[in-house]
Amino acid sequence: MKIATYNVNGVNGRLPVLLRWLAETQPDIVCLQELKAPQEKFPLQAIEDAGYYAIWHGQKSWNGVAVLSKDPNMKEIQRGLAGDDEDVQSRYLEVFVHNLLICCLYLPNGNPAPGPKFDYKLKWFDRLQKQAAMLLEKKLPALLIGDFNVMPTDLDVYKPERWVDDALFRPETRAAFHKLIDQGWTDAIRTLYPNQKIYTFWDYFRNAYGRDAGLRIDHFLLSPTVKDKLKSGGVDKHVRGWEKTSDHGPVWIELS
């Protein structure tokens, strides 16, 4: 089974790219982030025509997450994280499909840091940690998937010395990510490629893609009941080179 994640950076504006990639790679399950579309503007018909069912949590202008599946037996479990009744940002969606709990997330960017946006990022991370701990306690076959806006180690960022004050690389952010890992989650891509430079994001500026000056910020975290099923994974880096594409590349894993 092939599971993918893709920050599309606007699902309607990048729809031709998304549909081309889906046709080319045919993943069984896809998590999308940064839809940048209200609930009623999600391109459901085009997605269905491509052979996928969808559950989505949209938001006007910003954010938004979705889970696509070839299996119609997909059930929404939860949208949004507990712990802040005033948080209206569409960043988290849990769906049960193929006997897996797919937790699609788009963690806040947090810049500029320090500041209110960084505080929100850390609080959101804390809420995610509590949700993740509960999933592990229940021994669920769960996957935390999406754009975490975190480079966990120096290996995950081009020229780390330039990023020390960035919200995606500050010590507090990396500590929050490693706290998740320490709960018992497995970083799938890093497990497959322990010492290899792997990027999932290349900025639009300064020819970042051409120079391969990237970041690894899109992750799969696998619960203990899933980790032994991990077979392979990678990044469809070439998609970042397509015309009018997202600044992220799709990332995927295969489970037995």
TrEMBL record:
<keyword id="KW-0378">Hydrolase</keyword>
<dbReference type="InterPro" id="IPR036691">
    <property type="entry name" value="Endo/exonu/phosph_ase_sf"/>
</dbReference>
<dbReference type="InterPro" id="IPR020847">
    <property type="entry name" value="AP_endonuclease_F1_BS"/>
</dbReference>
<protein>
    <submittedName>
        <fullName>Exodeoxyribonuclease III</fullName>
        <ecNumber>3.1.11.2</ecNumber>
    </submittedName>
</protein>
<dbReference type="Pfam" id="PF03372">
    <property type="entry name" value="Exo_endo_phos"/>
</dbReference>
<comment type="similarity">
    <text>Belongs to the DNA repair enzymes AP/ExoA family.</text>
</comment>
<dbReference type="GO" id="GO:0008311">
    <property type="term" value="F:double-stranded DNA 3'-5' DNA exonuclease activity"/>
</dbReference>
<keyword id="KW-0479">Metal-binding</keyword>
<keyword id="KW-0460">Magnesium</keyword>
<dbReference type="InterPro" id="IPR005135">
    <property type="entry name" value="Endo/exonuclease/phosphatase"/>
</dbReference>
<dbReference type="InterPro" id="IPR004808">
    <property type="entry name" value="AP_endonuc_1"/>
</dbReference>
<dbReference type="InterPro" id="IPR037493">
    <property type="entry name" value="ExoIII-like"/>
</dbReference>
<feature type="domain" description="Endonuclease/exonuclease/phosphatase">
    <location>
        <begin position="4"/>
        <end position="248"/>
    </location>
</feature>
